[in-house]
Amino acid sequence: MRNPQGKNWCSVRATTLIELLVSVAVTMSVMVLLAMIVTTVSNQWTRGSSRFLLNTEAGVALDYLAQDLRSVVRKGDGSQWLRIRKPNPGGVNQGFLILLLAQPLDGQGKVVTIAYRLGVHDPMGGNEDRPVMYRCVFSPEDTIEHLGAEDLEAAWYTRLDEVLDDDWFLAEKVIEANLTFHLRDSDGKSVIVECLNNASGGEALVVDGKPVDVAGTTLESVTVRLLLLDETGLEVLQKGTLPIPEILTRYGNEYVEEVKFPGTIGEIKYDI
């Protein structure tokens, strides 16, 4: 049978069920492949963004710690210029605390007190608590009252809550902060002392109850180590599905900077 144009109707071939199924299968494979590519790219973007934000947080905290330690006023009258207390060593949110006398950044050489603390708080004012670090600056007028303090922590104890004010927020995701002191004895031998629990700096440097800055020993530098958790680690930490040491090992990121100490107050002029 022919149509008016003279073509054979039987020559028109219909799509078979098998061909239709093959076409659907190919289309589905392409869609699955595209979905996998999109998911991979999205995950890489998320990890990259998380890593960038983590590096930014660590960089801010390290920069402030380093500049403050470089500006330490090491007084020569035996009173404290440094106080560190770290409750619950090895755990999350140790409450790392450092109180020191330092120069502000106004270039005038006035002495201020700087306090750092770790806590758990939502820096945005919501209900999602996260590990955060605070840096509080007490004015020269407030500081002058405590310049002769034999124990800086005791001198400022009644005002430590001020450090946790949101106005003093410095960085989040900070789990631990540790200091390692580098000294050189009278024979020129290098001495390395890690602060595990507490330390104080006065006429001598005392770390974990032992004086290490004895006669003839020079305090040269300190290594600052910050441990931060990425977003995945924070989520796992909040869920409590893994032990804390394993979370820190798998999701913790360590950031390190070494800081050279300045001379004693007798070698540097300050407006006190």
Give the SSE order as H and E letters. HEEEEHHEEEEEEEHHE
Uncertain runs are 89-93, 264-272
**Alpha-beta content class:** alpha+beta
Hey, roughly how much beta strand do the residues contain?
25-35%
- The outline comes out as elongated
Discrete helix count? 5
Radius of gyration, taken over Cα atoms and rounded to an integer in Å: 30 Å
Report strand order across the widest sheet: 5-4-3-2-1-8-9-10
**How many distinct beta strands?**
12
How can the largest sheet be summarized?
8 strands, antiparallel
Give the end-to-end Cα distance, rounded to a whole number of Å.
113 Å
As a percent range, the share of helical residues equals 25-40%
- Summed up, the domain count is 1
What is the mean predicted local confidence, pLDDT?
A: 78
